[in-house]
Amino acid sequence: MDIQHSLAQPPVVILREDYRPPAWLVPETRLVFDLDAHATRVHAILSVTRNGDHGEPLRLDGAGQTPLSVTVDGIAIDDWRLEGEQLVIPLSGGQHRVETEVEIAPDRNTQLMGLYASGGNLCTQCEAEGFRRITYFPDRPDVLSRYAVRMTADKARYPVLLANGDPIATGDLDGGRHWAEWNDPFPKPSYLFALVAGDLAVNRGTFTTRSGREVALGIWVRAADLAKTDHALHALKLSMAWDERVYGREYDLDVFNIVAVDDFNFGAMENKGLNIFNSRYILADADTATDHDYDGIAAVVAHEYFHNWSGNRITCRDWFQLSLKEGFTVYRDQGFSADQGSAAVKRIEDVRSLRAAQFPEDAGPLSHPVRPDAYQEISNFYTATIYNKGAELIRMMATILGPAAFRAATDLYFDRFDGTAATCEDFVACMEEASGADLSQFRLWYGQAGTPRVSASIDHVAGGGRATLRLAQRVPPTPGQPTKRPMVLPLKVRLFGAETATPLTDERLILLSDADETLVFEGVTERPVLSINRGFSAPVIVESDRSAADLAFLSAHDDDPFARYEAMQQLMLDTLVAGAIEGRADHDAVIAAVAHTLDDPDLDAAFVAEAVLLPSDAFVGDQLALVDPDAIFRAREALRRDIGVQLQDRWRLAYDRAPAVPYVYSPTEKGKRRLRNVALGYLAATDAADVAALAFEQFRAADNMTDRQAALTTLVNGDAEERQAALDLFYARYADNALVLDKWFQTQALATRDDTAAVVTRLAAHADFSLANPNRARSLIGAFGVNQRAFHQADGAGYRFLADQLIALDQLNPQTAAKLLPPLGRWRRFDQGRAALMRAELERIVATPGLSRDLFEQASKSLE
Ligand code: PHE
Ligand code: ZN
């Protein structure tokens, strides 16, 4: 189908197979910034060398600026030309010094790419293609250069001047200005460039590396936030020690700085020696941050720090290889977080977010392989597939190799590719070389999109000693990939005896590699119950014919905590699917299993809290041929109420057994709070008369945001009279704290109420709502988009609202707009009425004059 588009230029598709090495290299780069919010001058001095024997001119990428001057070897030239936004400079020799000068306006940069203003400070964001908005440069990750940076700026407004690498010198100038110079000794691609100029306070620390290098650490924030930086600083030190211990990776510069800014398109950025963070992943204290926020901060601090090796020392050859750094680094940060608390709970959380974000992506119109073959706008490929499925690929290789060989393989990779721009293939080849494993078929995971489905069934003849496990796999078609080949699926399997409730076998790692396979287990003397994909060893969907009784059995007796959780989830899912389809379901098995889990004295609170939570509306929808949001909601509410009512005594007990104590962020206390708040949620489902008062009292008395927000959520989902009072108190208390106000918007956008679409539309006109701040935009629009029932209100009000907002946001910040589009693209999953309404909004977006390439790509692909 040909889509009518409204772009100034037809979309250009970039293909992986078109990769060519750069025609010119840039071993040295000197940048001189005359910083000013309205007009910043950038003077770039590039030493360029011809790469190979060719007659190509030098091509420098630019975006939004024009050259004020171009010189070659010190002489102004005028035979340069612009091709599109590329500056093309003919050069005759093998080596030249090329200088350009441009002027840019940080305070008009609403895209938050390149050099921009945030909260009165200046900062940069260059990944993936933001550097070209600062100066002319071969803005591609395989051109590595050594950078020297000089900044001059008004000293009163911008007392702090930071850039990558090490500080060299500073000085004062006339007119209240000052300067600073920084050098980064490590060659890096332009996307890792960063500078910050601002009025910032610092929380300093030190870390001594295992070879004795003392590193000066600094977390830079506005002065008022300084007290909220200890957790991030602590997490940074833990990360540095962890990477030495677990991967043998040591930090390599004398300073490591982190700057927090309020306006940021993503979570954070791993610029060499100068990470720039969305403030939501730095700032925390008990009063303003939840346990979940604390976890997120530690994970993102670790993630960006780990990029120093997996991303910076070894970068990506081209953006198709993005998962080389992102998948591996997510895997590394998951391992770090697992080591800080309960590894089982961390695995459950990671799988839950994989299923919430990546599985639907892989089942929809934006599905793409972990190593894509084509893109229009690279910003659209910072996806759950590249990040989270990418991490699962690394995890599977680690499982196949085993810990020792995996570590040998990562050592080999870091050693061999240090200082280079590498490919996913390079990584896999190291995995093979260090272990002797043959990963030829495994490589399909990088090229084939879609979530594999595995069907599993087990046969056993009563009285016999042999069990037969039949496995079959199917990889569904995805856009551009109608047929698939079987992949290698590492499945951890164990059999349990239905009568004795003991293991009948050891855990076995099965590498399913054919379309169908049959496996035989001997010595199986009683009816076996199948525990499969233990630890979620493969990112697949398992379809098995296990009965409710067998799932309940596993939820009580499996020795793998993830498998226990999974059995409970499957039992709940089966029940909810039946409820959604038939309008009613038998809840007894779920209620008994939840009771059993609550009663088990050997389980820790954090695990119990995860295990007894119902799957989300959206995940239930993913199991159905067509999503019926109202039927799913009714089924889920009915089950929630039944669990609440029938186990009310246990919920009261669980609630009281974890009394509020002064806030400490630790795995144990976090787990207790979590279980207590899950209990509150189930109590609220009972409609017991005192629950609103209980929630309001918790809201009022809490000394921490975890308990306060949980109570607020409970109240906001209901309609007790305390509801509005809590919202108003929360607003008044945090009116000047942007990160907490985001929670105020988000809680209302996620509310499970009939009026949520109307409330959200009203909130978009609230004085504190702004599309210019990505966190705020996401807190309302992004949260609403994942509220399945509210967003899919049958009259299409939710769709219209989202499209209106995205069209407006696209004018300011295309990247953030495009990120929020996917809920509209799920139209194939809904009834004809909803699908038509969703398509109409997508068509309206695509036909909007002046649309960005970002939003165009997402919306047009969603229509196909
Ligand atoms: N590379 C960053 C990370 O993984 C993400 C990012 C991408 C940030 C693009 C900004 C822009 O953490
Ligand atoms: Zn990353």
TrEMBL record:
GO molecular function terms attached to this record: aminopeptidase activity
Catalytic activity field: Release of an N-terminal amino acid, Xaa-|-Yaa- from a peptide, amide or arylamide. Xaa is preferably Ala, but may be most amino acids including Pro (slow action). When a terminal hydrophobic residue is followed by a prolyl residue, the two may be released as an intact Xaa-Pro dipeptide
Residues of the Peptidase M1 membrane alanine aminopeptidase domain: 232-442
Aminopeptidase N-like N-terminal domain residues: 84-192
CDD domains for the chain: M1_APN
Required co-factors: Zn(2+)
This enzyme's EC code(s): 3.4.11.2
Keyword Protease tagged: yes
Protease listed as a keyword: yes
Keywords: Aminopeptidase, Hydrolase, Metal-binding, Metalloprotease, Protease, Zinc
Domain Peptidase M1 alanyl aminopeptidase Ig-like fold, first and last residues per copy: 450-544
InterPro entries reported for this sequence: Aminopeptidase_N-like_N, Aminopeptidase_N-like_N_sf, PepN_Ig-like_sf, Peptidase_M1, Peptidase_M1_dom, Peptidase_M1_pepN, Peptidase_M1_pepN_C, Peptidase_M1_pepN_C_sf
Domain of life: Bacteria
Domain Peptidase M1 alanyl aminopeptidase C-terminal: 549-864
NCBIfam families reported in the protein's UniProt record: pepN_proteo
Family: Belongs to the peptidase M1 family.
Protein name: Aminopeptidase N
